[in-house]
């Protein structure tokens, strides 16, 4: 493991309070043209960012000098999503000047929390996959690795969610309406991207055949760089996001011919590419615009890499030593044929040479086993948008089937069909995951269990062919954002207990296990949790108007809304408790607040119905005086990174209840455990590894295993058996047919029941119901014993050092990327 010093005295940037104050004031005057008496919080926030940027840019320049000076191997992380959230607080912590800035601002009459909340979230991602990319670039910079993130500069990130009468309404997100202080436009690195058109076979002067693509359209890619400050400030890498523009905005020919309107329309079409992030989670949108987005950013990024490489090299013999490209899911796999095109068609390499390079450069991370999330593109659509790439894919496939598959399984046409990158059928489809496996030297899953399932279930024949290509890298989270910055109280306690180095070596927290039984430590730990809960209670009141008590169990489920994540199983538990309370208002249960946060894909009807259901059930329960406030249900609108940062430190119970075998890893599970919440969860994804770390007695595991789930489905699962055999379950499901929760709208929640009965309950909520209710009873029991709960919470927090994203990155470096660390500033 690379050791990066992060002791306060080792931070390279020392800026005293006075200097910071002066810098903020100077920027207020000279950058934003305002004065102290007139400036609002937005102006103060921007001036603060400019002051921070003076240090950031210095780090950026030094890092650039260092990395280009040694011409070193670097990783290029290609991802359609980077869910960065807000950057101000993080940059301050990573530079080691948070306290200095806070005190300076206080003296200027400004509150740092207020200023930080002026920053809109940079929500350029849907969920786990995008947030993982953000954690990874934080870790890469922290560890001093040469790295660049490449993605799209969406004008609108993930939609803003509002509730209207309990229904989700989507509103456009505008994260840079008033300018964004962190981004730097780099017009000197603009790239051109061809699209559409046709391919011709030509013969060169030497009689050699070559393919020439005559594109129907050219788009410009304009890069915007976001500096990525590593913890300790020793390295500042960049995230480079591409914005699409019309190639020649002032097309004089069209313009002069009276085509002003046509020229404008063309401009609008070009700009549409980076206009908006697709809000789908775990379902693919087989839309032309999405394929165009994928190609657009891969094409720009590869040209950028080649341009930089060619500055120092005359041929491509060192390309694979210098460059490794990680594909974040299949979304950027189009980069594989694109590199082939650039090397063969544009640089004149032989196919074999180019393929040998390409095979050493790419690696692919898979994030899902769900069949509906595995990308496939209609061959006809593909040919229309990228005619040359389809030819290249055919060639890759042809050589793979003839040279590799036929050798291993001679005369086996069925095997060829099975493994073909092109799926036969009507329509024929390009299987992007197969292209990924064939074109990459490594394919990895994101948690141990997931990686095993990839080998056994998703790609069994590829695994037989190339066992050495498959590997696991368990996900992680950055402890800088997900503990130090979001939970300053607990961070201070840990500083005192184990010293200040835990933000880079999270395993140091293990020492705290020794204090788990110490009543004094327990008291301090739980007092912090209580204060965090009080803070969240205020947020809840402000966002929902519902008053909740910090004495109650804060039971939280935050993640995208999806049937496999089973928010509706949680709902069934709520209904069960509510019904029991109505039958016996004196029932002795621990008070609980059920807290949700989730966005549903705009076209995902059932997911939206579940949001509506939870909102309506909450309204009824929260207003029902008979149950004396013993349970409350709140759904916080517009769940996003900055809201997660307020919720996670306040969690007592973390709901990780996906159907076993469906959640590749999960990362929210790690964030909660680190902040001292106990997990109630299935044996799925990284829950399995969390259990290994914290011990079986400190986690509430329930439900069928992945093997049991698949046997049950194979044997013919009938959810009605559970419905008819469990009167309590039957009663709460029948409740959904009534208008009890939706006065004057009988049956408004019936679709949820229908999906569980007529719909066959594909994610086995009813099969796991009883076991879930039992596990929840065990939670209730455990919470009664304050000392026991405190001990369990402390052990969780202290035992999850493995899930530091620095460890994930080091695993990638060791098994896939083979990089050397070069912190720029010592
Ligand atoms: C998530 N995938 C996994 N996809 O579901 C989760 O288990 C894992 O922890 C995480 O990746 C990180 O590895 C995920 O977030 C998406 O959001 C895609 C967006 C584009 C469309 C398809 C889903």
UniProtKB/TrEMBL annotation:
Its cofactor is pyridoxal 5'-phosphate. It is an enzyme of class 2 (transferase). CDD domains: GT35_Glycogen_Phosphorylase. It comes from the Bacteria. It catalyses: [(1->4)-alpha-D-glucosyl](n) + phosphate = [(1->4)-alpha-D-glucosyl](n-1) + alpha-D-glucose 1-phosphate. Its EC number is 2.4.1.1. Keywords: Carbohydrate metabolism, Glycosyltransferase, Pyridoxal phosphate, Transferase. Gene3D superfamilies: Glycogen Phosphorylase B. One of its GO terms (molecular function) is 1,4-alpha-oligoglucan phosphorylase activity. Allosteric enzyme that catalyzes the rate-limiting step in glycogen catabolism, the phosphorolytic cleavage of glycogen to produce glucose-1-phosphate, and plays a central role in maintaining cellular and organismal glucose homeostasis. Belongs to the glycogen phosphorylase family. This is Alpha-1,4 glucan phosphorylase. It comes from Celerinatantimonas yamalensis.
């Amino acid at each position: 493991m690379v050791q990066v010093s992060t002791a306060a005295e080792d931070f390279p940037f020392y800026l005293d309070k006075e200097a910071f104050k002066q810098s903020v004031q100077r920027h207020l005057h000279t950058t934003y043209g305002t004065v102290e008496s007139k400036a609002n919080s937005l102006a103060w926030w921007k001036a603060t960012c400019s002051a921070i940027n003076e240090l950031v840019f210095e780090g950026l320049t030094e890092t650039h000098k260092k990395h280009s000076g040694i011409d070193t191997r670097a990783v290029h992380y290609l991802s359609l999503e980077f869910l960065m959230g807000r950057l101000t607080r993080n940059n301050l912590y990573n530079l080691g000047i948070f306290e200095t800035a806070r005190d300076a601002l206080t003296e200027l009459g400004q509150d740092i929390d207020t200023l930080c909340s002026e920053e809109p979230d940079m929500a350029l991602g849907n969920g786990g996959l995008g947030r993982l990319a953000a954690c990874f670039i934080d870790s890469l910079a922290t560890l001093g690795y040469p790295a660049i993130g490449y993605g799209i500069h969406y004008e609108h990130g993930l939609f803003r969610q509002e509730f209207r009468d309990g229904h989700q309404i989507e509103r456009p997100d505008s994260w840079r309406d008033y300018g964004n202080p962190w981004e730097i436009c780099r017009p000197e690195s603009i790239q051109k991207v061809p699209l559409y058109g046709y391919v011709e076979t030509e013969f060169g002067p030497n009689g050699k055949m070559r393919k020439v693509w005559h594109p129907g359209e050219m788009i410009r890619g304009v890069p915007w760089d976001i500096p990525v400050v590593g913890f300790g400030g020793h390295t500042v890498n960049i995230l480079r996001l591409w914005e699409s523009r019309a190639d020649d905005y002032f097309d004089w020919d069209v313009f002069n011919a009276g085509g002003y309107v046509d020229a404008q329309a063309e401009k609008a079409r070009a700009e549409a590419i980076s206009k908006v992030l697709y809000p789908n989670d775990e379902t693919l949108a087989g839309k032309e615009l999405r394929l165009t987005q994928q190609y657009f950013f891969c094409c720009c990024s590869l040209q950028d890499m080649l341009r930089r490489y060619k500055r120092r090299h005359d041929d491509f013999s060192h390309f694979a030593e210098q460059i490794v490209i990680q594909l974040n899911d299949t979304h950027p796999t189009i980069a594989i044929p694109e590199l082939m095109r650039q090397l063969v068609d544009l640089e004149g390499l032989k196919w074999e040479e180019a393929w040998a390079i390409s095979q050493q450069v790419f690696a692919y991370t898979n994030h899902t086993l769900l069949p509906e999330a595995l990308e496939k593109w209609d061959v006809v659509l593909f040919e229309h948008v990228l005619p040359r790439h389809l030819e290249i894919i055919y060639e890759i496939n042809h050589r793979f089937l003839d040279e590799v598959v036929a050798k291993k399984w001679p005369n086996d046409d069925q095997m060829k069909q099975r493994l073909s990158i092109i799926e036969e059928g009507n329509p024929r489809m390009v299987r992007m995951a197969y292209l990924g496996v064939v074109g990459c030297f490594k394919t990895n899953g994101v948690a141990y269990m997931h990686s095993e399932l990839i080998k056994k279930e998703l790609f069994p024949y590829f695994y037989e062919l190339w066992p050495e290509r498959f590997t696991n890298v368990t996900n992680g989270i950055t402890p800088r954002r997900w503990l130090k910055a979001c939970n300053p109280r607990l961070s201070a306690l840990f500083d005192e207990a184990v010293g200040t180095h835990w933000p880079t070596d999270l395993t140091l927290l293990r020492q705290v296990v020794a204090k788990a039984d110490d009543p004094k430590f327990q008291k301090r730990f739980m007092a912090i949790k209580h204060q965090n809960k009080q803070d969240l209670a205020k947020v809840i009141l402000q966002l929902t108007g519902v008053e909740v008590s910090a004495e109650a169990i804060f039971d939280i489920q935050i993640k995208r809304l999806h049937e496999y994540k089973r928010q509706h199983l949680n709902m069934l538990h709520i209904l069960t408790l509510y019904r029991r309370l109505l039958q016996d208002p004196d029932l002795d249960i621990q008070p609980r607040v059920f807290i949700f946060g989730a966005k549903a894909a705009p076209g995902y009807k059932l997911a939206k119905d579940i949001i509506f259901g939870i909102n309506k059930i909450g309204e009824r329960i929260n207003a029902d005086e008979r149950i004396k406030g013993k349970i409350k249900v709140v759904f916080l609108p517009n769940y996003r990174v900055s809201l997660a940062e307020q919720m996670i430190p306040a969690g007592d119970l973390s709901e990780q209840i996906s159907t076993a075998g469906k959640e590749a890893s999960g990362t929210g599970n790690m964030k909660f455990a680190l902040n001292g919440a106990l997990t109630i969860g299935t044996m799925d994804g990284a829950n399995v590894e969390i259990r290994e770390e914290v011990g079986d007695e400190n986690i509430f595991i329930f439900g069928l295993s992945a093997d049991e789930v698949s046997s049950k489905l194979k044997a013919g699962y009938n959810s009605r058996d559970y419905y008819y055999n469990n009167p309590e379950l039957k009663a709460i499901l029948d409740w959904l047919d009534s208008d009890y929760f939706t006065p004057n709208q009988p049956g408004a929640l019936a679709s949820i029941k229908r999906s569980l009965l007529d719909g066959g309950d594909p994610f086995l909520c009813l099969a796991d119901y009883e076991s879930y209710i039992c596990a929840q009873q065990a939670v209730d029991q455990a919470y009664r014993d304050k000392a026991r709960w405190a001990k369990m919470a402390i052990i969780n927090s202290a035992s999850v050092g493995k899930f530091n994203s620095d460890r994930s990155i080091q695993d990638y470096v060791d098994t896939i990327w083979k990089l050397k660390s070069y912190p720029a500033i010592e």
